């Protein structure tokens, strides 16, 4: 049959171009000959449908006559006929797949109109597929999502029938809003959002009147059920064994909130009114807020307070719709239990079924049942011929229509009352706020503050007690932070209870909040404190928001004194862990980098499900260090360091003092790559640098107080060099090469803020020198430079902690007894230099040149290793080192490589052996 069909088109045995109108006609002939699906022609029909899809996509771009023929022959009817024959899952899957591909690739509106005409697509949408088959379900929902992407003001009429009140694309999709598969639920949300974005008032009114109440009520119940399941997971997982399931439940709740926010920001007002009413009265108030204080056994569904605080924080961080979040914040911060027991005047007029509005209850009927009833109520009754009328049918239809009209009126009335209540609240608030001075407002607020009971706000303040643990305190701080940063909350509500409002000047603050926050800081500074670092950082954020008004600090002296007491406690705590070892220096700098580079992000913190579980002290759970308690002496030391940093930074900021002692080494004080340095009379050793991948480069090695650098001669100025690499000595490892006495293997690691991360080398190469003597000299300088650099930083830490400072008596291995009493470690900021090497007075070698000019008798002495100006201690060390000379007998082999100036080195290519008189070449100075 297939061969005969080919000859019917072309008359020849050879096939024609498959992307052509002729081939489409041939495919149409195949369909007409195979209208009934059998086991023999099933594969043929599937391939035919695929070929037709390819031709249609080609015709959309190249030949409009293809769609003319497709429409003329009503070929979509064949597709529908194949579906209705219940031909098996294979044909259904292939048909849905090809239809999805077809609509995804159609770009011209005219072609799309052709495909959507005759209502065949809607017939496919309402076809009863076997949705128990996962593959059919996946292709079906993907097909609906593809169609929703094509919705606009013009194409919506192909899907929404205004006369019959039928919108199959939307109503069939939302039936799967609670499907067990998450990808199906995500697709349903995408479809609904694409529908809501279409600005067609008739369609949107249909959604509001016929589907909004059943859909939103079932959606709210579904979200609440997930919340209860999340709460059960928290209660039964005290040992952190089901964190995977808990993370999935938290992620699902976040998806729900983002979906609700996406609906709200479309800004369809009447949809927002219905959604806000359901969220407030059916979910947030009865389940989230009521759980904060209601602990007695009752029929009401409740969750744990810490879970409620966590979820409320997510709500305020994600949703900023003013009517919703302001009412919710007012209930939490300013409300009492009457919001659950006293009905509003509007709700008293509602039907008895809606009398208890603020209850988390299951909808009386499923969404599918509600949509089916709404669809039948919306249809007009068809006129039947009298002789076919059954006895009693007319009375039943009339009675059913009357009941449907009553229910429809009740739902319309409910939506209307929601809008009226919203308007009335706004009118009352506007009337009460008119003609009232600021003094009267403040006096009225003070009277109401003293008289009104606020059980939810009292619970928040009481939960900030961290004497035993900070389990609930962390969530309270997150909630207060989220409320203060919410754009939808009226600042007057926050000012009424004196909560901090960012970027707004104020003259007072909540003493209750500040005192509890400072108490948390004091608890964190105790040796046995159970306050996590995340809780402490949030406390610092809230305190700064409370007492900083613009550039002024309005904190009272007594509160500042308490804060200073907490800072002193943190200082004493850190002294207990202070050890003059290298690991302490690494931890000290790592924690400072981590604090500065990774400040706490409250939104990310509220996405972490692990903080819902009771605080743990073991790192085996994989929880980040700042979100758990320390384990072992090393982590206790790290925690003490971080607490000291936070409280020190907070104290300095509130007192308006600059930080002058941290970090220990500032980036602007270091030599950087591509810096041009005056290296006359500097100690340089020529070497060949062979990188790990075999690349070789001729460089000169220079050792500074904190750094080692590799330079090459500057082609523009004699005696100057360009830095090609600079690394910290304290992060360096030096080792010899077994089979080469002239080579050193040098590795310099990149500083990291993660102590558990594998060190990343920024330099890993072999340094090959002219002979083994220069190799020994270089190794000694690098090793002693590393020891001295770390020792000087440890002395700065000791000075920072007010510990006795014992300055080093050596600089790169050379005895300097006169320097011991002149190292001002605690005044690190006084000699900060400006731009790196901006003047000759600040470059290596200047001290030796200066001594040479004023002391000709020292011309036979060799220069000392110079120090980079990274602080007063460095400059003092450098000046002392430059005045100290020594002879060949005192230095041994060191003198052989330290007499030549940079120009001589450049000319000879190596360091000449023996002593050299000071070079007489002209020095080029800045500005010359």
Characterise this structure:
- The chain is α+β, with helices and mostly antiparallel strands.
- It is 53% helix and 8% strand.
- It is built from 35 helices and 14 strands.
- An 8-stranded antiparallel beta sheet has the order 5-9-8-7-6-12-11-10, with helices on both faces. Strands 1-2 form a two-stranded antiparallel ribbon. A two-stranded antiparallel ribbon has the order 3-4.
- The longest helix is centred in the middle third of the chain and has 41 residues, at 393-433.
- It is flat.
- The termini are far apart.
> Strands of the largest sheet, in order across it?
5-9-8-7-6-12-11-10
Q: Could you report the average pLDDT, rounded to the nearest whole number?
A: 77
Form type: flat
Sheet/helix structural class: alpha+beta
Proportion of strand residues: 5-15%
Number of strands: 14
How many helices? The count is 35
Keywords:
single chain, 928 residues, alpha+beta, 8-stranded antiparallel sheet, two-stranded antiparallel ribbon, 35 helices, 53% helix, 8% strand, disordered N terminus, disordered C terminus
Short précis:
The chain has 928 residues and is of the alpha+beta class. Strands 5-9-8-7-6-12-11-10 form an eight-stranded antiparallel β-sheet, sandwiched between helices. A two-stranded antiparallel ribbon has the order 1-2. The chain has a two-stranded antiparallel sheet with strand order 3-4.
